[in-house]
Amino acid sequence: MAGVTKLAYLGFNVADVSQWRTILFDILGLEQRSDSADGQINLRMDGHHHRLSFVDSDQDSLAYIGWEVDTIDQFQALYNHLQGMGIGVEMASEADKQDRMVLELMKFRGPDNVPFEVCLSPFHDNQPYTPSCPRFGAFNTGDLGMGHILMCHEDTQAAVKFYREALGMKISDYIHWDVAKATFLHCNPRHHSVAVCNPCFGTEAGELNHFMLQAEDIDDVGRAYDRVSELDVPLVLTLGKHTNDKMTSFYMVTPAGFAIEYGYGGAEIHDSDAWDVELYNAPKIWGHNLVE
């Protein structure tokens, strides 16, 4: 079946990018590209040309979610598959491909009108990734993609069906707690590349609740957590460990209102057929206390 293989990149419209600098550079240590276009900041976290884009705007909003496939045959098969499902997919312009720095690109809308893209062959830079803060190391990306996202959707059953049938994802597990009912889906060994949840905790349908970046060293997460306190960066959840993917992480509030999760040690699913899909009644083993 045609499907995506990893989360490739994210784009955001931002009203004031200067408000993001503490989180992006002082906490996460991301590298800003010097060749970013006027009114735009592109950020590196590995060998890709960039993984995150922030574009000057009159409001804060999600601009696009970029997925990736591994081969031209997969790209064409997915394009045909989406067309066959009646999804209004279209090939992107040369300008959009240049902006995302990819070889091929298609665009379409998902549940609740969320803007999705699928790319082929993101450009890899010939210069090594250099963190903006030398105390930070590498992110866990590669075949696992850039991380994961949690989206809220009005009709969660229809949304899960879309991610499975349109994008070829598989269910990892579920967590139902308080007013939230979340479904976690994977498209590579990362425990989940997307989670689908009902609108709750201030996140409306079609909105991003958070995205996650994973460090390769737990000490990077610890150092970043210390910096959060030093720089008075607001938190959503304190340091803790999840029940389902076993990630040790914390969640920061961004100027756009959604959160960024920074963690280490997420579980991997290397054989979907042998994986036991389970339902958890809580998202945490310890910590992850809500910051009021």
From TrEMBL:
UniProt domain VOC: residue ranges: 6-121, 145-265
Record flagged with keyword Transcription regulation: no
SUPFAM superfamilies in the record: Glyoxalase/Bleomycin resistance protein/Dihydroxybiphenyl dioxygenase
Keywords: Aromatic hydrocarbons catabolism, Dioxygenase, Iron, Metal-binding, Oxidoreductase
Cofactor section: Fe(2+)
Taxonomic superkingdom: Bacteria
Keyword Metal-binding: yes
Pfam families noted in UniProt: BphC_D1 (PF22632), Glyoxalase (PF00903)
MF terms in GO: dioxygenase activity; ferrous iron binding
Family the entry assigns: Belongs to the extradiol ring-cleavage dioxygenase family.
Designated name of the protein: VOC family protein
Species assigned in the record: Pontibacterium sinense
